[in-house]
Amino acid sequence: MELKQQRKGKFGQTIQVRLVSDFKVSQKYYRDVLGCKIDDWGHAERDGMTIILQQSISPEDVRPNAISKKRIDYPTDWEGPEFGWDTFIHVSWDDLDSLVEEIRGKGGKIAVEPFTGTHGKWEFKNTCIKDPDGYNIVLGSMREI
Question: Is 113 in contact with 134 (CB distance < 8 Å)?
Fold first, then answer.
């Protein structure tokens, strides 16, 4: 008797949903500071990044991620980030600095200035932007050493 292999479905694009304390303020920030296309549904889109903004019922419902526990079992000597990450966006090495200057020039808060480090045979460069609710948006790039 032949066993049929079960077909596996594919996941599509992943879209992050973010509770915000003031929907209109967040729409304005994501449009004017981050350069996103905004619609009335709450979609904030730019290039490969999509976030859906949703109005929270209460300000207490808005909870950016806390810092994660350090781990010694990563594949390299990295033990984890030094601050909470809410969104991580891969960007090209050459685009990271220009994105930081663009966002800073539009009044965005650069919470962590660009910094570099290594993971095994990879060099990384990260920075962190804070949105109006304190969510940490990490821009990160990597290149082989």
Answer: no
Helix (H, G, I), strand (E, B) or coil at 53: strand
Q: What amino acid is encoded at 98 in this protein?
A: S
What is the pTM (predicted TM-score) of this model?
Answer: 0.89
Task: State the amino acid at position 137 in one-letter form.
Answer: I
Residues paired with 51 in a beta bridge: 16, 44
* pLDDT tens-digit map of 76-113: 888 888 999 999 999 999 999 999 999 999 999 999 99
Smallest CA-to-CA distance from 140 within 129, 126, 121, 128 is with: 126
Q: Give the CB-side neighbour count of residue 123, counting CA atoms within 13 A.
A: 7
* Rg (alpha carbons) of the chain, rounded to whole number: 18
From the number of C-beta atoms within 10 Å of its C-beta (0-12, 13-18, 19+), residue 31 rates as: middle
What six digits make up the tokens of 107? 């009044």
Question: Which phi-psi region, left, alpha or beta, contains residue 112 (left: φ > 0; alpha: ψ -120 to 50)?
Answer: beta
Using DSSP's 3-state secondary structure scheme, residue 88 falls into: strand
